[in-house]
Amino acid sequence: MKMLFAILLLALAAQSCSTNSTARLKQQNAYLAGQNAALQQQALAAALAQGVAIVGAVQNPTVPWVEGLTLAQAIATSNYTGTDAPRQIIITRQGESATLDAKVLLDGTQIPLEKGDVVELR
């Protein structure tokens, strides 16, 4: 009986250590995810000060703003790398967002961008 009790205590102690390690690992991963998000926010803020930010599968997420820059030019400059064409484009300007069907680019519609815009390709 004493042997069974000792085995149960050892198993319980091992499980407790495993649970503590798992919890510690989850906390560390959450902390790192928060740090990464903060760094991405800082990079986005720096990019916006210089031009237009493109979020999505692109090679160049920051496009320098020039007078007359259009959505099509910004996407071409960012070098889209997605395997499928984007279905939706969300443009955020001064905290307000507008969602567009990506087909609008094929229609030849010229959509002007402003310095500080964020374009998300989905």
In short:
The protein has 122 residues and is of the alpha+beta class. It has helices at residues 2-50, 71-78, 103-106; strands at residues 51-55, 62-64, 88-93, 96-101, 118-121.
Structural class: alpha+beta
* Continuous helix count: 3
Mean pLDDT, as a whole number?
Answer: 83
**Distance linking N and C termini:** 63 Å
What is the top-level CATH class? Alpha Beta
Which band does the percent of strand residues land in? 15-25%
Order of helices and strands: HEEHEEHE
The total number of structural domains is 1
Write up what this structure looks like.
It is a single chain. With 122 residues, the chain is of the alpha+beta class. The protein has a single domain (2-121), classed as Roll (Outer membrane lipoprotein wza fold like). Helix content is 50%, strand content 20%. The chain has a five-stranded mixed β-sheet with strand order 2-1-5-3-4, sandwiched between helices. Strand 1 (51-55) and strand 2 (62-64) form a beta hairpin.
List the helices and strands and how they pair.
Elements: H1 2-50, E1 51-55, E2 62-64, H2 71-78, E3 88-93, E4 96-101, H3 103-106, E5 118-121
Parallel strand pairs: 1-5
Antiparallel strand pairs: 1-2, 3-4, 3-5
Distinctive features:
alpha+beta; 122 residues; single chain; Outer membrane lipoprotein wza fold like
